[in-house]
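Recall the central idea of this unit: under ordinary conditions, the amino acid sequence of a chain determines the structure it adopts. In this exercise we apply that idea directly, starting from the sequence alone.
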Amino acid sequence: MTETAASSSKGRPTKNAAKKAGFFARIALFVRQVIGELKKVVAPTRKELINYTLVVLVFVVIMMIIVTLLDLAFGSGVSWVFGGTGPTDR
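Accordingly, the structure predicted from this sequence is:
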């Protein structure tokens, strides 16, 4: 039998090894993995951060305009279908 890439992975513990490890050993492994992943994080530059912020703000404003227009359109449609201008009309 030949050894596959998945079975030869040395970085990931097998399921049996994870079950044999104690509770605190699993917590320590988790903390080490979290720290290892946090070391890979790259913070954006100031220019990138400003660009991302502006993109999000423009997107939110556009979505607010779309929702407002849809709300006005549906409100007008409901008012036209059922007549009246509000809950106080009888």
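The mean pLDDT is 83.
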